[in-house]
Write a structure and sequence with these properties.
Elements: H1 3-16, E1 30-34, H2 42-56, H3 58-61, E2 64-68, H4 73-81, E3 87-91, H5 92-100, E4 112-128, E5 147-149, H6 156-167, E6 176-178, H7 182-190, E7 196-201, H8 206-215, E8 219-221, H9 226-232, E9 240-244, E10 256-268, H10 273-285, H11 287-293, H12 315-323
Parallel strand pairs: 1-2, 1-3, 5-6
Antiparallel strand pairs: 3-10, 4-7, 4-8, 4-10, 9-10
């Protein structure tokens, strides 16, 4: 299948994918993957993976995965717990919350397993230049009394945004919070209804691209100093420094020095080992296919597949990685 054919096929699936959940266990081999809102990176990457499985795996094995839009990590956990979806893309932070039953996650999800680290979720705290003084995340305090979109309610975007800002001393009780997905956040910023937005996503993020294309001279994305990175990591060693090179976004003239955490693909532990093995194998044997659909997948590599995973591997995924010569640490071996 040519690159143009792949893109056309994926575009069709993007149009067709809708938020509809069927209760109960899926037909054998037919699975559903929760992603996030359509303006970020989870959704198109989820569609890319489902397209790959449709093209490369379903004809020979009858295994299929349908990617659907959702509110993100928090809702994906709930839907996996209810078996309305079997796979979900999660922020590393929410994976850690889920395994430990901590933070905003009310219970431990011991029935979930990791499949792979996918790509890094890059934090974009995009604000109007009128509220910036230092150019770092400290400037979020200048939004006290102003409006800021923290993400859709109960989403991983909201949860990670609250976590990060709390760790660097920002009191969100003093900010007028809007709860919007990525696309609506970009629209609200351009319309002057908010003064900033929280967009954790793979680079480039569509909502950030749109905002910079229309408001490049009026907005900036806040940096993190090494000291601020250490503050964010005081509970979980998840985030690393991440540089977004100048020119990544329209009218972006300088590097952005932000932070990133891993995104992971998680699965229910009752999905058969052979199916998870085949899905994992197909992903890593066809990375160029995924790269043609979404650039965030260019960060994926077999040697990084188990980096930063917060919960044990599904036996099917572990078997594949062991066959490829990866050493699986004890903490990632399901008991």
């Amino acid at each position: 299948m040519s690159k143009n054919s792949v893109l056309k096929y994926a575009s069709g699936l993007l149009t067709a994918a809708v938020v509809s959940f069927s209760a109960g266990v899926q037909a054998e081999g037919n699975y559903v993957m929760g992603t996030a809102t359509t303006g970020g990176t989870y959704y198109p990457v989820g569609v890319a993976i489902s397209t790959l499985i449709k093209v490369k795996l379903e004809p020979s094995t009858s295994i299929s995965v349908s990617a659907i839009s959702s509110a993100g990590s928090g809702e994906n956990l709930k839907l996996m717990d209810e078996d309305q979806i079997q796979f979900g893309i999660l922020q590393g932070l929410y994976g850690a919350y889920a395994w430990n039953g901590s933070g905003p996650v009310p219970k431990a999800y011991k029935n979930l397993r990791s499949v792979s680290m996918l790509w890094q979720n890059v934090e974009h705290f995009v604000v109007t230049k009128k509220v910036t003084k230092t150019g770092t995340i400290e400037d979020m305090s200048n939004l006290y009394g102003e409006s800021f979109s923290i993400g859709a309610r109960n989403s991983g975007t909201e949860g990670s945004g609250r976590f990060i800002l709390g760790k660097v001393g920002i009191d969100l009780e003093k900010v007028n919070l809007a709860y919007q997905g990525y696309g609506p956040s970009a629209d609200a910023l351009q319309n002057g209804n908010i003064d900033g937005m929280n967009i954790p996503a793979g680079v480039p993020a569509a909502a950030v691209t749109r905002a910079y294309a229309n408001m490049g001279d009026e907005i900036t994305t806040l940096d993190f100093t090494p000291e601020q990175v250490a503050q964010v990591n005081s509970d979980f060693e998840l985030w690393t420094a991440y540089k977004i090179p100048a020119g990544t976004y329209p009218n972006q003239d300088e590097d952005i020095n932000t932070i990133a955490q891993p995104n992971i693909l998680a699965v229910r532990d009752d999905v058969p080992e052979k199916d998870v093995y085949e899905i994992t194998r197909t992903i890593y044997e066809n990375l160029p296919f995924l790269n043609n659909i979404h650039p965030a997948t260019k960060a994926m590599a077999l040697e990084k597949a188990i980096a930063g995973l917060p919960m044990p591997l599904h036996p099917g995924a572990a078997l594949f990685y062991q066959e490829q010569g990866l050493k699986i640490p004890d903490r990632l071996i399901a008991q």
